[in-house]
Amino acid sequence: MTTTTALRRAAAGVTDAVKVYGGGDTAVRALDGVTVDFPAGRFTAIMGPSGSGKSTLMHCAAGLDTLTSGTARIGDTDLGALDDRRLTLLRRDRIGFVFQAFNLVPTLTVAENITLPLDLAGRRGDPAWTDALVDVVGLRDRLHHRPSELSGGQQQRVAVARAFAGRPDVVFADEPTGNLDSRSGAEVLGLLGRAVREMDRTVVMVTHDPVAAAHADEVLFLADGRLVDRMAAPTADRVLDRMKAFEVRS
Amino acid sequence: MNASLRLSRASLRAHRRRFAGTFLAVFLGVAFLAGTLVMGDTLRASFGTMFGEATAGTDAVVRGADAITAPGQGQGVRQPVQTSLVRTVERVPGVAAAAPDIEGRGQLVGADGRPVGGQGPPTLAGNWITDPRLNPYRLAEGRAPARSGEVVVNRGAAKKAGLRIGDTTTLRTPDPVRVIVVGLATFDGQDGMAQVTFTGMTQADAERYLTARPGQAAAIDVRAAPGVGQSELVRRLNPVLPKGVEVITGQQSARENTDMISGQFLTLFTTFLLVFSGVALLVATFSIHNTFAIVVAQRTRDNALLRALGAARRQVTALALAEALAVALTASLAGLAGGIGIAAGLQALFPAIGFPFPDGELVIKILSMALPFTVGVVVCLASALLPALRAGRTAPLAALRETDVDTSGASRPRAVTGATLGALALAATLGGVLVTPSVWLAGLGALLALAAFVVLGPVAATTVVRLLGRPLDRLRGVTGGLARRNALRSPKRTAATASALMIGVAVVSLFTVFGASLKATMDQTVSRSFAGDVAVSNPSFGAGGSGLSPRLAPALNRLPQVDTAVGLGRGVAEVDGRGRALTVTDPAALARTFDLGTVIGSLRDLGTDGIALTRAEADRQHLRTGDSARLTFTDGTRETFTVRAVYGRSELAGDYVITRAAWAPHRTQDSDTLIAVTFKHGVDADAGKAAVKRVAARYGNPQVQTRGEYAQSSAGGIDMMLTLVYALLALAVLIALLGIANTLTLALHERTRELGLLRAVGQTRTQLRAMVRWESVLVAAFGTVGGLGLGTFLGWVLVKASDGASDTAFAFALPPTRLAVVTLVGLTAGALAGLRPARRAANLDVLRAIATQ
């Protein structure tokens, strides 16, 4: 399994990533020399206890935050070499996002939210693709509704559709099921999984929920800003056991 | 300290930014108000001091006892006194010196050939009083006039005219007089008495050019011998004076002069400024109310938590009001300081632009501090009252609920109330304008219309913004679409923000429309009443200018091209006990050059005891042709005149007409205000005009204009007024813009997470800035459109009400170019107001924005 992973092209990744918040005595090393590739066409989950640096890793890899040292890449593009404008354009054109909550612009309809990154870019996108996405997430009858008229699960499904609308190189999901009940959460995770396996998309997801992590192809474990373990073909029980080990240690 | 106060202090400290807009709005309003009052008092006091100082040597003034004042004229015309009386006065024991004071109108022509002054303040000429202590002017350079033709000019006028000692120029009295400047004078150490120009001549010259006949003076100035007080002097002088002549103390005379200037000029000026500070404060009310409403809405959770923890309604309300009070007090206090600063700045600035603002301490009365302070505090507290009450009503449970955006606004009761108000407004104005002309009813209607606009704002906001924003979607794509929807988010808030600008724009458009209508009215008046080919006039404004030489009209009549040249002079008399302005002319010629409407009787043979008047005046005085009217002239004589004609139109001809022969025995300084010229049949218009011009050049070179040019220049003063009004309204518009910027900043603060999301999914900073700016432009557009509508309507009401209230037929005109400029300024201003909020929003840190709760 590891060999196949290595052979795959990396959709995104970081090398020797260090992120320090603050300075002097109060400096916090959120990332302490992490090197990892997120292979294309795979669903990778990042896990770790609170304060392990998993969110920071995602933010830096996605160009929302900058590294103190080391490099972050999307495809072959070194994010450190980009200014704010180019980073924005890169996020718009090559990255999709699903956040924990507040994913949608309240003044736009479902359909408009889905095509928002495309509209911002002034691109028409691929109507057949977005159309297919709408069916996959099952929101055809809600296209002209406002986000406030949807349930939390439906809102997250819209966010998923938006994330994939522009066929990005990679979709980053930050605790996408954190605010959902287990059934809605399972639906969203199922969508992310289908996108990877049926549509050959790449997903990187940060989560603290072993059940969610079990939907991934591989789980990376972070602790104290370091990559401490990885697990291929995870199941919820195995992930939970691994996580318990952290608690015992700390 | 009690808990509410402690909390509100903490909140103020934490949200200083939010209240910056409120602070500025109150500050500007109060500063403008206080500045106006302080400046008015200071000017009034310095004029008083100036007169007191300048005329300190005059202990008594002997003058005609009765003054005749025609409506609209500030200063009455007094019967002149005989200069021979000077000798009688000088013989009274206790009199040290006496000198005649001859005063008339005399406008200097500058080195560039253009007349000096005449745009408001009087242009005076008089005799140079040789007793230096009786003369209010002091010789600063050169010498006093000794020979005929020599004059002393006040230094300010000389500067403006570009004249130096030894220069020769023309003085229009209005008969042109060649004069040589031999001296420059000051008035109480200043270059002049404000902008008033003064030319001092020898007594003989003054008698010759400024009075109807030699031996007359406006007054006799008297100086007392040492040891004789002013009232003692008056007591001694009284017995020697003939009938119809009175004496007052020098102090009283100075006070009268000061009061006259205060009454005529300063009061008007300060009232004008006060009205505009009122508009600014009204606009501020909306901005302030809006800010507090938003702050309270944003703090629903905090307030609910307080309520859940056991705070009483009253305490929560008090908390909000305490914040408002703190802002009100600090802003009002700062405003007072700002106002004093404004007054001091003007005091320093005025002399630099040629308006000698008298020196001296600023006069800061308790009232001019207490009033603006109170107004500032009351405006601020009243604006915050409703939001504060709303804060008190917060349900404790609201702490648990997700706060959602306030989408109320288009509620049914609001629509019904607004529509009712609108209908009432329409009914009242139409009733007051069309059915039974009543300014009060029309005014009530205008007020109701304003209320209707404010109430209906939120209802209209949705539709209007959607409509106005439609082109944005097409032009600006998703950025424009987002901007439009953001502007639509809270119709109530959008409407309240726009209301402030709406009022500003409404007042601007009201004046614009009214100004254009006045111009159109003048145009219509001239084209309807003026049947001549060219008009000769000396453009002037207010008390300035000296009119036309009475010898010009006869000279023009001698031209071979001219059929009729008729001069219109002005006189004043009491008609049946009331002061009236008279038109002194050749009535028969008048009928040929002016369209007087329907004439009953004949204007041909008024003679020396005939009078003609307009239909409206005749109705008012219950006079008909053949009736007699008693006229009292300024020389005290009473005569009975017979009404020989009643004519329809008074616009240019005036209300009362008498012949020159009838006026001659009673005349004062002679001048014509307008000469209408018709050419003989077959005379080319240009050739005729050129011939008239050649003659006019010899009589002080007044303007010779065709009918169209004359109509246009008559309206010139209106543009000047409009410019001033625009400048003053800039303050109100500025406050409205601060309101827009403030609301926008607060709204963006609410949307922090959304902004973060937009940035995360790829909105560039440029796009975000554009989105915010367009939202601002849309809100401004809504206010501008509303203001244009309201202002135009009110302009129409004002025109129609004026039409009903006066004899002149008012024309209503819409100036498309000016209104387009107003719109453009409104929109640009909106874009400007959005600049800072846009920049702040664009600089948000994406991650932090997303993480905001």
UniProtKB/TrEMBL annotation, chain A:
<keyword id="KW-0067">ATP-binding</keyword>
<dbReference type="InterPro" id="IPR003439">
    <property type="entry name" value="ABC_transporter-like_ATP-bd"/>
</dbReference>
<feature type="domain" description="ABC transporter">
    <location>
        <begin position="12"/>
        <end position="249"/>
    </location>
</feature>
<dbReference type="GO" id="GO:0098796">
    <property type="term" value="C:membrane protein complex"/>
</dbReference>
<dbReference type="InterPro" id="IPR015854">
    <property type="entry name" value="ABC_transpr_LolD-like"/>
</dbReference>
<dbReference type="GO" id="GO:0005886">
    <property type="term" value="C:plasma membrane"/>
</dbReference>
<keyword id="KW-0813">Transport</keyword>
<protein>
    <submittedName>
        <fullName>Peptide ABC transporter ATP-binding protein</fullName>
    </submittedName>
</protein>
<dbReference type="InterPro" id="IPR003593">
    <property type="entry name" value="AAA+_ATPase"/>
</dbReference>
<dbReference type="InterPro" id="IPR017911">
    <property type="entry name" value="MacB-like_ATP-bd"/>
</dbReference>
<dbReference type="Pfam" id="PF00005">
    <property type="entry name" value="ABC_tran"/>
</dbReference>
<dbReference type="GO" id="GO:0005524">
    <property type="term" value="F:ATP binding"/>
</dbReference>
<dbReference type="GO" id="GO:0022857">
    <property type="term" value="F:transmembrane transporter activity"/>
</dbReference>
<keyword id="KW-0547">Nucleotide-binding</keyword>
<dbReference type="InterPro" id="IPR017871">
    <property type="entry name" value="ABC_transporter-like_CS"/>
</dbReference>
<dbReference type="GO" id="GO:0016887">
    <property type="term" value="F:ATP hydrolysis activity"/>
</dbReference>
<dbReference type="InterPro" id="IPR027417">
    <property type="entry name" value="P-loop_NTPase"/>
</dbReference>
UniProtKB/TrEMBL annotation, chain B:
<feature type="transmembrane region" description="Helical">
    <location>
        <begin position="421"/>
        <end position="440"/>
    </location>
</feature>
<feature type="domain" description="ABC3 transporter permease C-terminal">
    <location>
        <begin position="275"/>
        <end position="395"/>
    </location>
</feature>
<dbReference type="GO" id="GO:0005886">
    <property type="term" value="C:plasma membrane"/>
</dbReference>
<comment type="similarity">
    <text>Belongs to the ABC-4 integral membrane protein family.</text>
</comment>
<feature type="transmembrane region" description="Helical">
    <location>
        <begin position="446"/>
        <end position="468"/>
    </location>
</feature>
<feature type="transmembrane region" description="Helical">
    <location>
        <begin position="819"/>
        <end position="838"/>
    </location>
</feature>
<keyword id="KW-0812">Transmembrane</keyword>
<dbReference type="InterPro" id="IPR003838">
    <property type="entry name" value="ABC3_permease_C"/>
</dbReference>
<feature type="transmembrane region" description="Helical">
    <location>
        <begin position="265"/>
        <end position="297"/>
    </location>
</feature>
<dbReference type="InterPro" id="IPR025857">
    <property type="entry name" value="MacB_PCD"/>
</dbReference>
<dbReference type="GO" id="GO:0022857">
    <property type="term" value="F:transmembrane transporter activity"/>
</dbReference>
<feature type="transmembrane region" description="Helical">
    <location>
        <begin position="362"/>
        <end position="386"/>
    </location>
</feature>
<feature type="transmembrane region" description="Helical">
    <location>
        <begin position="318"/>
        <end position="350"/>
    </location>
</feature>
<dbReference type="Pfam" id="PF02687">
    <property type="entry name" value="FtsX"/>
</dbReference>
<dbReference type="Pfam" id="PF12704">
    <property type="entry name" value="MacB_PCD"/>
</dbReference>
<keyword id="KW-0472">Membrane</keyword>
<feature type="transmembrane region" description="Helical">
    <location>
        <begin position="724"/>
        <end position="748"/>
    </location>
</feature>
<protein>
    <submittedName>
        <fullName>ABC transporter substrate-binding protein</fullName>
    </submittedName>
</protein>
<feature type="domain" description="MacB-like periplasmic core">
    <location>
        <begin position="20"/>
        <end position="238"/>
    </location>
</feature>
<feature type="transmembrane region" description="Helical">
    <location>
        <begin position="777"/>
        <end position="799"/>
    </location>
</feature>
<keyword id="KW-1133">Transmembrane helix</keyword>
<dbReference type="InterPro" id="IPR050250">
    <property type="entry name" value="Macrolide_Exporter_MacB"/>
</dbReference>
